[in-house]
Amino acid sequence: QQQVRQSPQSLTVWEGETAILNCSYEDSTFDYFPWYHQFPGESPALLIAIRPVSNKKEDGRFTIFFNKREKKFSLHIADSQPGDSATYFCAASADYGNEKITFGAGTKLTIKP
Amino acid sequence: EAAVTQSPRNKVAVTGGKVTLSCNQTNNHNNMYWYRQDTGHGLRLIHYSYGAGSTEKGDIPDGYKASRPSQENFSLILELATPSQTSVYFCASGDTGGSQNTLYFGAGTRLSVL
Fold first, then answer.
1. Is B45 within 8 Å of A99 when comparing Cβ atoms?
2. Which sign does the torsion angle of CA A25, A30, A34, A40 carry?
3. What is the pLDDT of residues B18-55, one digit of tens each?
């Protein structure tokens, strides 16, 4: 049973476009939603995260949109650059400081120049 | 910056053999995790720990044991390795202090079970 579902499995966009990666979850107790990215041959690293006290979190070109009612959240990458090409994982955990973090299956993003 | 070191980096094992993957962290985080990464499945949690002496089952614990003898060290043990356990294994440490729980990953261990 996958508690965090991610789509699409792969995505290709042109340089300068906005890439949109989607996730949904089932567990209503989840209250922390990070996104990690992983470049080829490297380890995953935290990119940006949100808590449901707000429905939007921005960090430069990266924005998380959160919809608590529908249990969905998405990562928007504006003005995509070839250097953004990587695999992106959404994740979720429950409670403030809960130790168990569950990841989605990942989206492989390719930015074409 | 957080430092998480895994050993070995690569391992070839035989079916039925015992495999131990080791992880050491130097940032004094309470929590440590073992994930495996497979194409199409992302990162799946095997075991995790709140601190020395504690181990908890993750989402796919069958066939794996874990040991946390100290704050710094967290091992993953495959008592009877099977080919289905061929994967890339990542250890991570994390601290729940503050407003977010950031995981710091090691470089990964590529395990092949023949």
1. no
2. negative
3. 999 999 999 888 899 999 999 888 999 999 998 999 99
Would you say how long chain A is, in residues?
113
Whether A99 and B101 lie within 8 Å, measured CB to CB: yes
Its domain, for residue B17, covers 4-113
Q: Please count the structural domains in chain B.
A: 1
Condensed to tens digits (0 to 9), the pLDDT of residues A37-94 reads: 999 999 999 999 998 888 999 999 999 999 999 999 999 999 999 999 999 999 998 8
Domains, in order of start, for chain A: 4-54+67-95+103-112 (2.60.40.10)
Q: Which residue of A has its CA nearest to B104?
A: A45
Choose the closest CB to A101 out of B90, B97, B101: B101
Q: What is the DSSP string of A13-43?
A: EETTSPEEEEEEE--TTEEEEEEEEE-TTS-
- Is the CB of B58 less than 8 angstroms away from the CB of A100? yes
